[in-house]
C-alpha cells in the first residue's frame, strides 16, 4: 500500500464550476482576487503538520498572481498543472488541449523555476470520451496525471475506471493516479475531498478516506484554497444547489484538514508516481 498524497487545486473562488453560469470568464479580471490569502492559509496548515504537498495550479493564476506560485514553490511544495483557465477537457479539441497544457506548463515553470511534470484535468474531465488526452500529456512532457475520479456524480467521474494507479499509454511511462473512492453498498463514493468532505461529519470523512485507501492501496486527497475562506463573496445569483455545494462546511474545513493531515504520513504526487511506476514494472 502506498503512502497517500495531499494535493491542492489552486484557482480563484470565482473560477469554480458552481458559478460558471453567472460569472463569465471575461469578467474575471474585475472580481476580487483572494487566492493569495487563501493559499497562505493552506501553507500554514501544511507547515504546522510538516507536510509537503502537490499544488495543481492554473496557468491563469501564474499569469495574474505569480507571487502566489513562487510562494508555494519557495515553501518546498511541488508545482503541477491544472490547465490554463479551468476549461474542461471535453470542451476542447485535441489541438486546443495541447495548446492549453503547453501554455500553462510553460507559465508555471517560468514563474516557479521548477519543471512541471504533473497534471490534473479541471473538474476531473478526463474520461473515456477524452482518453486521447493521455497521449498528448505524455508527448508534452508530463510524467503523471491525476485526472480520473473513479466514481459517478452529476458533474464528473468515471465509475468504470481503475481505482489503482495505471499506465494509460502503453508505450510511455505516464502514470494515471486516480482519486480515492470508497466502494460501499454496491456503488463507489467520492471520499477524496471537495464538498463531500465538507458535508460529512468529521469522524466519518476521516474513516471513509482511510477505508478507500485500504481498499485500493493508494490514497489521494484534494482540496481548494477557497475552501478555507468562509469570508469569500457569496454569489447570490448562482443556482441554490450550486451555492450550497460551494459554501457548505467552509467554516469547519480548516479543522477537518488539520485533523486529516495528522492522521496519515503524506507524500507528494511525484513521489507517489515513482512508487507506482516501480510497482507496475514489478507486476508486469
TrEMBL record:
GO MF term set: hydrolase activity, acting on carbon-nitrogen (but not peptide) bonds
One Pfam assignment: Polysacc_deac_1
Top-level lineage group: Bacteria
CDD domains, per the entry: CE4_PuuE_HpPgdA_like_2
All residue ranges annotated as the NodB homology domain in the record: 20-284
PROSITE patterns reported in the protein's UniProt record: NODB
One GO term (biological process): carbohydrate metabolic process
Task performed by this protein: Is involved in generating a small heat-stable compound (Nod), an acylated oligomer of N-acetylglucosamine, that stimulates mitosis in various plant protoplasts.
Entry's family note: Belongs to the polysaccharide deacetylase family.
Protein name, UniProt field: Chitooligosaccharide deacetylase
Amino acid at each position: 500500500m502506498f503512502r497517500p498524497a495531499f494535493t491542492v487545486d489552486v484557482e480563484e473562488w470565482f473560477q469554480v464550476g458552481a458559478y460558471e453560469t453567472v460569472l463569465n470568464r471575461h469578467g474575471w479580471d474585475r472580481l476580487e482576487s483572494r487566492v493569495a490569502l487563501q493559499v497562505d492559509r493552506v501553507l500554514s496548515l501544511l507547515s504546522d503538520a510538516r507536510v509537503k504537498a502537490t499544488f495543481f495550479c492554473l496557468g491563469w493564476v501564474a499569469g495574474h498572481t505569480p507571487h502566489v506560485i513562487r510562494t508555494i514553490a519557495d515553501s518546498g511544495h511541488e508545482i503541477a498543472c491544472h490547465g490554463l483557465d479551468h476549461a474542461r477537457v471535453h470542451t476542447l479539441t485535441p489541438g486546443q488541449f495541447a495548446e492549453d497544457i503547453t501554455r500553462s506548463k510553460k507559465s508555471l515553470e517560468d514563474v516557479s523555476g521548477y519543471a512541471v511534470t504533473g497534471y490534473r484535468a479541471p473538474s476531473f474531465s478526463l474520461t473515456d470520451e477524452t482518453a486521447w488526452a493521455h497521449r498528448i500529456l505524455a508527448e508534452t512532457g508530463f510524467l503523471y496525471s491525476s485526472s480520473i475520479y473513479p466514481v459517478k456524480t452529476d458533474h464528473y467521474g468515471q465509475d468504470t475506471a481503475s481505482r489503482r494507479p495505471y499506465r494509460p499509454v502503453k508505450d510511455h511511462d505516464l502514470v494515471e493516479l486516480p482519486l480515492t473512492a470508497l466502494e460501499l453498498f454496491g456503488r463507489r463514493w467520492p471520499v477524496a475531498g471537495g464538498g463531500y468532505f465538507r458535508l460529512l461529519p468529521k469522524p466519518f470523512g476521516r474513516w471513509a478516506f482511510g477505508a478507500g485507501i485500504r481498499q485500493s492501496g493508494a490514497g489521494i486527497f484534494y482540496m481548494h484554497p477557497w475552501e478555507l475562506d468562509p469570508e469569500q463573496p457569496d454569489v447570490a445569483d448562482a443556482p441554490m444547489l450550486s451555492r450550497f455545494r460551494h459554501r457548505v462546511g467552509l467554516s469547519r474545513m480548516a479543522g477537518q484538514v488539520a485533523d486529516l493531515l495528522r492522521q496519515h504520513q503524506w507524500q507528494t504526487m511525484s513521489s507517489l508516481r515513482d512508487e507506482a511506476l516501480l510497482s507496475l514494472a514489478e507486476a508486469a
